[in-house]
Amino acid sequence: MSMFRRAMGGLAALAAGALLLAACGGTTKPTTKTSGSAAAASSTTVPASKIQKGGTATFALGPTATPNWIFPLMSFTYFSVANISNFQYLMYKPLYYFGVGEKPVVNNRLSLAYPPKWTNGGRSVIVTLKPDKWSDGEPVSAKDVELWQNMVTAEKANWAAYVPGAYPDNVVSTKVLSPTSIEFNLNNAYSHQWFLYNELSQITPFPEAWDVTKLGAKPGSGGCTTDVKKCPAVYKFLISQGKKGVATYASSPIWSVVDGAWKLQSLDTTGRAVFTANPKYTGPDKPHLSKFVELPFTTDTAEYNDLRSGNSIDVGYIPAQDVAQRTILASRGYTFKPWTDFGFDYFEVNLNNPTVGPIFRQAYIRQVLEELIDQKGDIKAYYKGYGYPTCGPVPADPPSQLTSPLEKKCPFSFNPKRAAATLRSHGWTVVPNGVDTCTDPTKCGPGIKKGAKLDFQYVYSTGIAALTQSIETEVSDSAKVGIKLSLSGTTFDDAISKAAACKPSQSSCSWEIVNWGGGWVYAPDYYPTGGELYKTGAGSNTENYSSKTMDNLIQLTHLNKGNALQNLYKYEDYAVEQLPVIWQPNPDYQLMEIKSNLHGFSFNTYLNINPSDWYFTK
Amino acid sequence: MAIGVAPTGLEPASAATTPEGGEAQAVGSIWKLIFDVFVQNRLAVLGVAIVVFMALFSFVGPFFYHTNQVNTNLNQVTLPPSLKHPLGTDDVGYDVLGRLMKGGQSSLEVGLAAALLASLLGTAWGAVAGYVGGWLDGLMMRVVDSILAIPPLLLILLLASIFVPTIPVVILVIAFISWLGCARLVRGDTLSLRVRDYVQAARASGSRSGRIVLRHIVPNVIGTIVVQTTFSVADSILLLAYLSYLGLGPPPPASNWGDMLSNGLNYLYDGYWWLIYPAGIAIVITVVAFNFIGDALRDSLEVRLQQR
């Protein structure tokens, strides 16, 4: 099991087809519901007479990964699956929803808008909204899209998915054509599919009730919908409402205006979230359940203890170390199925740290760190085979032509001997089970002084036993070549907040290595260009990586000039060799255990959950 | 050694009348009396034997039983007990028997160091408060009361989450919440000692307050301190186990019995008993042993007082 931040951003058209795998498109509305849980894949039809109306379903959150932010335009600190897929999407629907069952395609049925229409030679796109309504009775309108657009334009620096040069920079202007239509005018003729999958996919319309600068003000009085210059004040107000604390979210007059199928009944500081069906929901898939509850856990073992009791969790997961016992859970009415995601796993090193940043800025050092991770061994011993090695930014599973030949070769796989040799050849005196020292600064690299030590502080997310074990092994293997990693455990939420983009002079730049126990899921765009992760100044480039070559290669994939797949390979190969972050084993997202009488669960490859589809059978 | 200085407080007493605090005894006879009472307590002897065994096991054992407790081994994860690994291997491939020794070092070091530090601080705080009295006593004891009002586990979790939990930090954190009881006890004893004749005499002869506290007060509460320290060792070992069990102890590759127990519980349902029982038993018998010793010391020192 692992936990992820989400990604948005990035690119192209052509290879979308490659990754679509065998997907037949997302426009077909299912005519029958399939039985959920693990049976989601079995297409068992459940007669309507057997579907139970109402009931409460419980969903186990990942260890220490809890919802802690409600405003959808968020900074990197809150950019997590727990906040987006498991929380915000239930209340605030994105313009375009992704994933039809397990298929990685746009879900037109659950989207707020119809498929976009292109004009002006591909330089303009018109989005038309469906007739949905907010819970305050107002229609979901083109102005709500414009409110988002203006807000993200004004506050792009505070948005985790911002990619310099891409969205929203490439939107020259917007024009509201009618209450339900809005036109985006672009600075180039972009690929239609790319713009849908990687840019329109990022939009979550905001209600007019949010365009205010104080509580009780008239909706729209903030002026952000019509004037970008007025957005900072509105943003500041909304952020202040968000910072009032999670316990205030349910009763907030701001956050209680929703267009999703669910309303927040309560959220406490432990992360326990209770949702009730939104009685004013106007979209498709009205909930069968009357209540949906998310349960927080501090460790996967605690979750498993609860799961074994068989009483409180309807949708949970079995830790990798306990997977041999899934037959016991089967006897207690659970069905097992791994949940995989389209993502990759890594941890970050701070290239801007004033002390160790110069060391991390050396590509050979990052390659050495990579060669000290026994990914295959970890997967076999700790993840019990449920996972695959990460060798680059493009997920190797499901197999696709998007993975370049070089990434498939995994050029920096586990090899401590080569790691030690590399260090020696770069002027380091290697002291096995000691601490290596730079003795020849001319070879160590720019900015590294004589006597510099390979001694790093390593913050990691606790709670997942298999992750802790793999990190412990990494520490051990690193020690063998004289790299000292001093561990410090914390929660997932705290870990991602520590990994902050920073300048060397800032106090927040003191972190050295952060591993939040997961990596990144490409969602809602699944075209893995990595712009938001590695482009200079991107919102989620918290490792502070900066390379003109990388920027150009990423930009090339955005522009879709020439052979798009080859362009992707060029970026990918450069990332494989540069290692802006350190790849680590990518376990299955969760090894799911679902109550057999609960149906409708989809193993969404982007990790979105849609409890509106869930139901119990009589 | 501690009791050897007890007659110091009796120096001013007149030989013509029964001195306050009883007849002074020869140092050797007091030691013998205490020892005799102590060894009559079979549980205390058992406690000492266990503590000595655990200390030898943890600190001397690794010289005879060589294992790699630095590098993990993916090829021997959770192996059951065998001739090669008498207590099996753990979840990252460490030999459990060797790990038990290494964990014992941390547990005993933290237990002893935290208890000594707590006793030192508690003694100084309580003696000063009790001797000086007045508003300072009130202030100092309200500080103690305030900290005592916070549930110790909550306080220790808070502190452990603020600071990076290295061994020295854990010692300081545990000592910080453990000195309060000692301070109260010492302060109580000091309140009665400060009005004794020999203390008054020392004051009349011009002794400074610091000297009086160090030479006449503290030596006479040493029994209380020793007993409290002994119990505190047991408590500190348990607190370290709590912290580690909750994931707030020193991070890997450091190890202690609580950490081993915590890791082992991840495999509670897998039948890997060797990851749970050895560490659990080590904690229990060591803590019980220190409690046996503390009980016996209290009885022994009580005898000393009865003899006065």
Overview of this structure, please?
The complex is a heterodimer of chains A (618) and B (308). Chain A folds into 3 domains: 33-99 and 262-340 and 591-618, D-Maltodextrin-Binding Protein, domain 2; 113-258, Dipeptide-binding Protein, Domain 1 (Dipeptide-binding Protein, domain 1); 343-587, Dipeptide-binding Protein, Domain 3 (Dipeptide-binding Protein, domain 3), CATH 3.10.105. Chain A has 18 helices and 26 strands. In chain A, the strands form 8 sheets. In chain A, strands 1, 14, 18, 19, 20, 21 and 22 form a 7-stranded mixed β-sheet that branches. In chain A, strands 2-11-10-9 form a 4-stranded mixed β-sheet. Chain A has a 4-stranded antiparallel β-sheet with strand order 5-6-8-7, with helices on one face. In chain A, strand 7 (171-178) and strand 8 (181-186) form a beta hairpin. Residues 6-43 of chain A have low confidence and may be disordered. With 308 residues, chain B is mostly helical. The two termini of chain B are 18 Å apart. Chain A binds chain B through residues 298-299, 301, 304, 308, 319, 321-322, 324-325, 328, 374, 377-378, 380-382, 433, 462-463, 465, 468-469, 471-473, 475-477, 479-480, 486-489, and chain B through 70-72, 74-75, 77, 91-92, 164-165, 247-248, 251-253, 263, 265-270.
Provide key terms for this protein.
heterodimer, A: 618 residues, alpha+beta, Dipeptide-binding Protein, domain 1, Dipeptide-binding Protein, domain 3, 3 domains, seven-stranded mixed sheet, 18 helices, B: mainly alpha, MetI-like fold
